[in-house]
Amino acid sequence: MPTTESSVPIVSASEVPTVSAAQMADVDRLAIEDFGITLLQMMEQAGSHLAEVVHLELGGDLTDHVVIVAVGPGNNGGGGLVAARHLANRGARVRVVLSRPALRMTKAGQHQLATLIAMGTSCCVATFDLADDELRDALAGADMIVDAILGYRLHGAPRGEEERLIGFVVGARRPVVSLDVPSGMDPDTGEASGSAVQARATLTLALPKPGLLTVEGAGRSGRLYLGDLGLPAPIYTALGVDAGLPFASGRLVLLDRGA
Amino acid sequence: MTTSASARTFTEKIGLLSEVALFAGLSDADLQAIGHATTMTHCARGQQILSPDDPPDRIHIIKKGRVRAYRMTPDGKQLTLDIFEKGTILGDMSLLGQSRLPEAYAEAIDDGVICTITPDQLRRLIERYPIVGVNIIRHLAARLQGAERELEAMAYQRVDQRLARRLIDLAERFGISTARGTLIQARLTQQELAEMIGTTRETLAHTLSDFRRAGLLDVARHQVTIRNAERLAQMADGE
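Above: the input entities. Below: the structure tokens describing the complete assembly.
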């Protein structure tokens, strides 16, 4: 029986601390350097939550739904590729569109891409493998677009091939689920100084970024989910952040921003 | 082919070889010896250069033009792996600890010139001319550094920063000193330059005009002369 988002525990955003982009970069660094968590581990967590959010946003049924996953060259894109694998396994008709040639992705992203290719999921690079009209048509026919183009490390307006792919996603006017922050949105302020995705829902990871809670950021990011990356709690203590227990009721929660 | 035509072709080949970074620092006599060991091929846009079916015994150096490497996915479509520019070495580089891209095809994006050599010939050249080995190390180090810098620049830097950075790179590779400044000896259309830095031709034209008005450079007949390298370097660093 289809479920709805109401099956996800709801947590008040006011009870969960935020971490700035700079703090989140420290969280990632400590996780890897001091606790031996690998990028692939984190990517797997992010991508599996992301697939679940797409499932929820499509009314609890992925079967034969067309999902286009728009992927940037960084680790945010890698999370999108993991989601593509889970979505395909769960019955969605998935197509992956990369902003850059495959070997321009991070190593962890290339690893995920190799798995997708081996399992026969359709993957191509915008501009080089897909004519612009074809890309426009594909996006216009999607039941859902997953935005994994740029993550929390963006400051300033997006550029180059990423700006181009964001433009196509925005132009498609189809529902979008964004990973971590809508691509093009400043994670700290919620502002967009150039092209930016308008999401129906956003899955942010570990702890929310402050920009998602501003008026502008809330409008741009839509329903806000928070996904657990399983990071060791002492990381937050080391950084002086009182993280509390945001995932006590579930590893994927819906953040209620209040009125 | 007549003898004089062969001689002309060989002279042209030596001229092209002298511009390959790998063979920098060699005398004309050495270049002539290398000329006999290499093949220089003119290829047309869209022409296939590498295929997984090729015997794994060729190294290709892009002398002119750009090359797109791709592989076929199980659904029969092409997936672009990378875009390579002039100076890139393609093929089986196990000699240098770099393996050939598995199942990769490569095709010319532009009309170009490719220099081909076998790993055995290259090994013999390195033994006879150690400077070739030094040049290879320099080439690979620069490629690694360039790839990391470019990835960061494309996503996060402004167009003027990226243009300044790219012009400095081009000046280092193709620049000659003139009375007016450093002339970049590469004819580039605005479209090509725009594609290199991931922007539109219109934005590039606008940024070039800004640079010209600020006295940073001159543009004439598709060639750029850098007039204020110091200021351009500051712009590339975002200052």
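Note for the figure: Confidence is low (pLDDT under 50) at residues 1-5 of chain A.
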